[in-house]
């Protein structure tokens, strides 16, 4: 089992013929991902990377039964691209674009709340189910199939965690990079819940960072629902000065509960196995799964 994407997902790329879309779609196809086409308005009817190009997402849904989309569209147009995918009935929408205005994301969030779809991102590395589907920008060779789920606000730490897990003799069921913007589609808790309900995920690695309350909400939910599976937690930004944005737009310490130390304390209180360094993630997984 996996969550969100697998070998049967019919994936399209919005912004298919642009530089980013072309580069990453090539990598996805080379990985073996089932890319069934792409969308670039005005270029419908053409072929790109051996796949059909459509003018609209609706065309792609109608003609190639697309059910998953990855978005490489410039920030000014990315909000509309997400809503177009949702309107066309795409079930899993993964938005890589960084720098979408918050005002646009407020509208997007309100719009997709009434649709039967799941948004991952924006400003995220995507989702990978190893050896089945890579729908994102992560280096696929690091990931090996297994039973550890990863949810992370940080792209690079997603790869680091996967590398640590694999080097310790385990593998990944699915890795979800949720993104670090203030408004995102899938929260830490949402992703944890998917893994808790996945039969083949036996342990979960949860990587957070300073700013916001997503990790605290997830930790409390895990405890309330009975700590069904072991969760290994790491919070980035332990040396971040208060009031300064660190890397991600949402990674800013607003109050005392937003610091890495405060979040780590909350995680520990709720039964999560907290590690002080990302270098210890794989060791902790091995210790717990033994």
Automatic annotation (TrEMBL):
Belongs to the succinate/malate CoA ligase alpha subunit family. PANTHER family: SUCCINATE--COA LIGASE [ADP_GDP-FORMING] SUBUNIT ALPHA, MITOCHONDRIAL, SUCCINYL-COA LIGASE SUBUNIT ALPHA. Succinyl-CoA synthetase functions in the citric acid cycle (TCA), coupling the hydrolysis of succinyl-CoA to the synthesis of either ATP or GTP and thus represents the only step of substrate-level phosphorylation in the TCA. The alpha subunit of the enzyme binds the substrates coenzyme A and phosphate, while succinate binding and nucleotide specificity is provided by the beta subunit. Heterotetramer of two alpha and two beta subunits. Gene3D superfamilies: NAD(P)-binding Rossmann-like Domain, Succinyl-CoA synthetase domains. Its EC number is 6.2.1.5. Substrate binds at residue 159. GO terms for molecular function: nucleotide binding; succinate-CoA ligase (ADP-forming) activity; succinate-CoA ligase (GDP-forming) activity. This is Succinate--CoA ligase [ADP-forming] subunit alpha. GO terms for cellular component: succinate-CoA ligase complex (ADP-forming). The active site is at 248 (tele-phosphohistidine intermediate). Signal peptide: none annotated.
